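User: For my dataset I need records formatted as: sequence, then structure tokens, nothing else. Please produce one.
Assistant:
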Amino acid sequence: MPEKLPDPYEILGVSREATPEEIKAAFRKLAAQHHPDRNPGDDGAPVRFKAINAAYQILSDPQRRAAYDRYGSAAEQPGGFAGAGGPGGFQVEVNGIEDLLGSLFGAFGFQRGGSRGDLRKEVTLDFNEAAFGTTKKVLYDRAISCNECHGSGARPGTRPDPCSTCGGKGRIRFTQGLLGFVAERPCTHCNGRGHVVSDPCGTCRGVGIIAAENTLDVTVPAGIEDGATTLVHGAGNVTRAGRAAGDLELVFKVETHPFFKRLKDDVVCAVPISFTVAALGGEVEVPTLEGKAKVRVPQGTQPGAVLRLKGKGIPRRTGGRGDQRVEVVLEVPTELTARQRELLEELAREFDETVSPQRRTFVEKLKDLFG
């Protein structure tokens, strides 16, 4: 009598009405929790991980799930109702090893995009580093071929066995639909690789891929903007032995500055000045990207006026630099001594419309508006 297989619904902890999304989410959570690399010294972890993966293969394949729902574990026995390929061994879903590795990459903390093994990494720059350029050391995790077994997944000194299901081809043929169309799909027994590992490598647990820490020295050009990206070819994940590594996309994030904002190749800085300096003119000290500088404030400077320091902005890739824009902010005193109030009140009486052209224009507009 064939051995009754464990209920895949119970293994993944989902109901029989679970959606494909709920099944996938449960699988990824459990795969990350029970992966052997996450449980060193736990001899039961590989067994649990294999059972979790086998349950997922049944419930993620609509045909196999329907067969299991109808016939139970008999559908997964050799010669049962599961269809071409049948069950057996350490399997991954029909799309091949990439989807399983995607879950493993997530467990390792990788950010993986697509089946090519592309990675995305954010690089943080301070404002001056982005303005003048720098060299950053980027540290990140990636997947590489196992150094112990050279990506074969088999224990050193042994070889993988040809897959008995697909005959070493990695693909199986099956009939589809009422008209009997013949189609092909990756073999679910060997994950499309054409071979199976009976004596797995102790380092990679038969996967052929391990996690590794990688370091890159990245040259950041002067004038780089927030959100800019660059691609490092071949610095991403290896998704399968013998396949080239994916690419690493670096995304540059520029931190905010306490004084400056960027406007194309110019930098903008708001500087408070007193009423007397605005009225009489003078010099004020302002910060620049390279230290302090003085800027001349013309007599009668109005709030919101913009003063420029030529060539104190962002270096241009074509040569030269932008400007620094100094936005004038009028600083009004909040507390006055009795003497200061007396002087301001006297000054107010001295002012007339010829001294306050903006106020005069405003009053004239009010008269035209209200008659």
